[in-house]
């Protein structure tokens, strides 16, 4: 049984910072990532990180957001700096198991005020 617990969302002013966490139990995940969905828009990839530590960040967040993972804690983080109002969305963690099974977190709201 895989369980994902997200935390760290909230309300912040433009230019501020937040750190999201997603703690997982049950198995090892080859890819851990963050996605977001703003009202009226499709869910989009924000950042991903492999078991070996290779990262991929969306162009819209490069230089501002940083994804990392702690394999010992089976936790993925998203450090978000210089937040903009357009970063407002529900953020979801997505974990992919060693054999391809994918799991989604419950989502955490991030709201950036101007």
User: Segments where pLDDT lies below 50 for 5+ residues?
Assistant: none
* Helical coverage, percent range: under 10%
Discrete helix count: 0
Question: How many beta-strand elements?
Answer: 11
Distance between the termini: 41 Å
Rough shape? Answer: globular
The rounded Rg comes to 13 Å
Strand count, sense and barrel status of the largest sheet are: 7 strands, mixed
Oligomer: single chain
User: How confident overall, as mean pLDDT?
Assistant: 96
Overview of the molecule:
By secondary structure, the chain is mostly beta strands. It is 0% helix and 58% strand. The chain is built from no helices and 11 strands. The strands form 2 sheets. Strands 2, 4, 5, 6, 9, 10 and 11 form a 7-stranded mixed sheet that branches. It has a 4-stranded antiparallel sheet with strand order 1-3-8-7, with no helix packed on it. A hairpin with a 4-residue loop joins strand 7 and strand 8. It starts with a strand and ends with a strand.
């Amino acid at each position: 049984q895989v369980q994902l617990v997200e935390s760290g969302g909230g309300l912040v002013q433009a230019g501020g910072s937040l750190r999201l966490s997603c703690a997982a139990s049950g198995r090892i995940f080859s890819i851990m990532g963050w996605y977001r969905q703003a009202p009226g828009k499709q869910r989009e990839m924000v950042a991903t990180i492999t078991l070996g530590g290779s990262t991929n960040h969306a162009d819209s967040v490069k230089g501002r957001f940083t994804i990392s993972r702690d394999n010992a804690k089976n936790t993925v983080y998203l450090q978000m700096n210089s937040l903009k109002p357009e970063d407002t969305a529900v953020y979801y963690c997505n974990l992919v198991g060693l054999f391809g099974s994918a799991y989604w977190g419950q989502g955490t709201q991030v709201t950036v005020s101007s």
